[in-house]
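[job 4417] fold queue: 2 targets
>>> target A
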Amino acid sequence: MIELYYAEDDANIANAVKEYLEQKDMRVQIYHTISEFKQALEMHMQMHVHVHMATVVLLDWNMPDGHGDSLCQWIRSHWKELPILFLTVRGDSSDIVSGFQHGADDYVVKPFALEVLYSRILAVLRRTGNVTEQYLSCDEIQMDQNRHAVFCHSEEIALSEAEYQLLWYLMQNKGRTVTRAKILEAVWDANGSYVNDNTLTVTMKRLRDKLSQPACLKTIRSVGYRMEDTI
């Protein structure tokens, strides 16, 4: 899911954008000041938590406690590849120039149609690549594929290779029921090691215990398993 962090001090505009984009299967986090926005990103950076980490950033240029160019520059100093769009009022060409100078990827002029904003967000993601694709999440479970690390409730969890690969396969298929046979084939047989059905049962039990019996990891009786968000 695309996670959009949105810095906007106008509640009416922010809520309209949030409602529209969430209908497009985005998750939108609104911050009304630059300070709030920085605190949210710093929390993820300091705690190494990537659940609901921004996929793309939308910045209003005129905020109560500063301007978008300074925030854009601050973001770039910590996340060099995080896609950034900024919003500026019509005719403020100096804002546009400053935005690009400080690392923005694109801009949208106010007032804007919601459809146009949505298309520009998708265009930026296509151009820059979705850098947060390295992160998979379901409820309070997060996987950092680059670091081969798993977190649950912000705490890193040590998994065996089989447990990690099982969780990864279920995360990759989040929202879909996968059969036991498919899991055995993907996690074990793909590596050329034959195992019996009980191996999956034991590995699943250990995985659930380490993740504190997560509600998002469901057993589909006589079929297999499914991961889906519950919060």
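>>> target B
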Amino acid sequence: MSWASSTLWWVVAGGLVAAELATGTFYLLMLALGAAAAALAAHTGAGVTLQLVMAAIVGGGAVTAWRLHRQRQPKAPPAESNRDVNLDIGSRVQVGAWNPDGTAHVAYRGATWAARHQGSGPAQPGMHVIVAVRGNELVLQRAD
């Protein structure tokens, strides 16, 4: 059985998509675009050299463009202070008193939590905002 070169390129593109689904490596989709471009070139009757050039240019160009796009995006905050990961970030709590070491115990969501002060100046009682959650400790800043 002899396969047309376009069929081979479509199988390669499908294999790259399947590998991306299994690994989550988005760059494999960019390489699959290159294989699809080579398949389209094969459909037009281009030779093997031109097919390889198309795969390299489109796949490599897509990888480069995606890499440049990702570098220009702002970095996500760490998980402990990322509102997308922890919905407690930004919630307000009332602090009755601070210990001398900058810790306190606060009531939050029906439980008593350990809390730590973060920010400039001395820790003062009052309303605070959760800025991070480290383990079972809330990191608080004074609410302005």
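[job 4417] complete. Note on B: The mean pLDDT is 91.
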